[in-house]
Structures are given as structure tokens and as C-alpha cells.
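Support reply, case 0932

Customer input (verbatim):
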Amino acid sequence: MIEVRGLRKSFGSNYVLRGIDLDVKAGSVVCIIGPSGSGKSTLLRCMNLLESPDAGEVFIDGRDITHAGRDIDRLRAEAGMVFQRFNLFPHMTVLDNITLAPVKVRKTPKNEARLQAMEVLRRVGLEDKALAYPKQLSGGQQQRVAIARAIAMKPKLFLFDEPTSSLDPELVGEVLEVMRNMAGEGATMVVVTHEMQFAKEVADQVVFIDEGVIVEMAPPEVMFANPANARTKAFLDRVL
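Our regenerated output:
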């Protein structure tokens, strides 16, 4: 579903990604871990061109999204993004937040989009909040709405950029449960996370990034029990 080849990105003299190669199979969950500033979020943002790579290629379902003639809006519609901060429109109801993109980008008829949005809200346990505004919701509920918004676009894959990092600890579980359900339904997911238990339980592959390079990639049962690289082991010893 995703192929990343030789990806490089710098901000001025700060080299954030230093030649990343990564494959993500359809229907798999890949969790990206690593210290702050290692390039995790930048890699994710390059996968739907919120950041433009300096070099390298990114393919989604066989299509090169980095070539000059690409339709960025169409490509982003295939890679649903869930951010650290929920990025909901505060002046719009939950229902309107979810239906906006399907109507504007997918050209879904409004009534059909609303029916689909209600079904997605049922999936994330927020059907009763359809007419609420973001400020009336808890942080965990807002993030679940943000996930529902991504699901409503019916993308080919989902990109999660530390979706629980801005939540109070007691709200983290409800968001991770929605993500677990998505994984169980076969969604293709790339998740930048510091939730190691989630990575252990849900990931098919765990990728450890440090200083802009992939240091190690392995199934969670290998990565957490017997990391091959000393840098990986030192990081896991600190966070576990």
C-alpha cells in the first residue's frame, strides 16, 4: 500500500530524514517509535505531502505521489490523517465536521454524507454527539470525532501522528480502543506513537527511528523482547 524510497527532508541545516526506505502492506499496522526530534512526524507528513520531500519517492497503492503532475487533494483523500491536536472546526457541529470533506472533495450528496457520518459516529461510540460542537466534548471525544472524520472519507490508509499525546491519561484508552477496532477490521494504518503497549498488541511491524534513519524494524514480539540494535535497546529501556 505504501512504498517509501530514499526519502530525505531537511529544514535549513537541520537534516530530519536521511534516506528512509519503508514498505507498508495493505491491511497491516505499522507503529513508528523513537525519541523526540527523530523524524517520525516528518516522515508521516511526507506520506501525504503535508511536507514536501527534498528527495526520494513515495508510492501509495502503486502511484507516485511525489511526481510533479500529481493531484495533491485527490492523493490526500486516500491517506486519512489524524493529528496530535484534533483540528476540528470549532464553529461547526460534529456532524458538519465529518460531512464537509466527503461533500466537498468526494462530491458525495449531502444527505448520503450525513447518513454515512451517523454510521461512522456509531462505530466510534458518539452517535449522541452529532449535533454537539467541539468545545462541548472532552479531548478523547474530539479525537474520536477526528478519527470518524478520517474514516468518513473512505481512504485507502490512515496516518496517525501521536493521536493520544495531547490527551489526559484517563482519556487515552477510549481513543486506542477505536484504533484497535479499526485494525481488527483490516484498516491499513501507520501510527507514530509513544504508547508502547498499543504497539505491542496491535502492530504487525514496529519501526524504530533515530536521527532521521530507520535503525531497526521488526515484529513487536521481536522488537520489544530482543531488539537487535543497541540504540533500540537503550531507547526501550528508557521508555518501558
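We compared this against your earlier run and they match. Two observations from our side: Residues 169-184 form the longest helix (16 residues). The chain is about 35% helix and 25% strand. Please reopen the case if you see a mismatch on your end.
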